[in-house]
Amino acid sequence: MSDAPDVGELTPPNRTLMGPGPSDVHPRVLRAMSTPLVGHLDPSFIEVMNEVQELMRYTFRTDNKWTIPVSGTGSASMEAAIGNLVEPGDTMLVPTNGYFGGRMESMAERAGGEVVHVDAPWGEPLDSADVQDAFDEHQPDVFGFVHAETSTGVKQPSVPELTSIAHDHDALVVADTVTSLGGVELEADDWGIDVAYSGPQKCLSCPPGASPLTLNDRAMDKVLSREEPTRSWYLDLSLLEGYWGDDRSYHHTAPITNVYAIREALRLVAEEGIEERWARHRRVAGALKAGVEAMGLGLNPEDEYWLPSLNAVLVPDGVDAGAAIDYVLDHYDLEIAGGLGALAGDIFRVGCMGHSARPENVSFLLTALGEALEAQGADVDPEAGFAAMREALNQ
């Protein structure tokens, strides 16, 4: 047998996280994670579970009983939504305008569903007329859309129009709110969303591990009346409702520390006020937008579709995006990211989410990115960017 490995103390670098996620974790959330563990059926933890559900309903803007943190990352919440709602023989309509529409497709196919598409170019939202045409042609059972597309920096407008089309065809609506929950206006009930899933590591500024999910009664009725069980035992909502519902019966050992963390993150949302939090993200990200544009850079989406929590900054001609990303990481311990798929090499993805959505972070980002671009000879004006940023923040 080999000797014990000589592994030193964990000393990760102290980064400023302004990529597509995770965002900087709020210090109060970190403190909550250091509190003592209790059992996952301990009466004190049952109380924590109840509080998390109430706080999550507030943040989703819903009265849905079936509102829980799924034990896992945002992809687990996504798979719980799609894998429970889509049965073999069902048809799911998914978008083609970003990376995460493709992930919806993959999950629906693994659940035994047939997938059809509503098309839009990467960097543009879905057009309601195209959604209407897709419904008329395919008559899907489930419709999935991405409210805030992390790969392109596009916010889907006119959500009530899309949900109305779906409901007119007796379809259920699944919304990806991973990059919008807690940072961008979202009204799950008023907009007619049947199922919404999210992740904690974006606008909630919480480590991944317990991921928000909400279903209305209509969606849960479909889950509970399936002809055959979902293919995942772990993510089977008909079993999880026994743990997160009224009975609190054992299903799995919940990630206690992650539930503590999301409870504190959601407390911060409630203390700030959800509408005030949306406004802060618009104001701080608006200053970032003004700064990069005045510097001489563009943003990928039209202003109407601009996503405050994820800014898709266009890479100037002649600039190596990867080299610029490496520069700000190496010189400033600042994380941003490049584009995915059709936008690889064309955009920088700059997050402005949760605890990272602060004026000092925007100033830091403009300094670092401006220097990285000048190092490659790009024609940018960081001073003009700073002036525009300050003006936007003072408005």
From TrEMBL:
Pfam family of the protein (one): Aminotran_5
EC number(s) given by UniProt: 2.6.1.-
CDD domains found in the cross-reference section: AGAT_like (cd06451)
InterPro entries hit by this protein: Aminotrans_V_dom, PyrdxlP-dep_Trfase, PyrdxlP-dep_Trfase_major, PyrdxlP-dep_Trfase_small, SP_NH2Trfase/AEP_transaminase
Annotated stretches, region: Disordered: 1-25
Gene Ontology MF term list: alanine-glyoxylate transaminase activity; L-serine-pyruvate transaminase activity
Family: Belongs to the class-V pyridoxal-phosphate-dependent aminotransferase family.
Protein name in UniProt: Pyridoxal phosphate-dependent aminotransferase
Organism: Haloferax volcanii (strain ATCC 29605 / DSM 3757 / JCM 8879 / NBRC 14742 / NCIMB 2012 / VKM B-1768 / DS2) (Halobacterium volcanii)
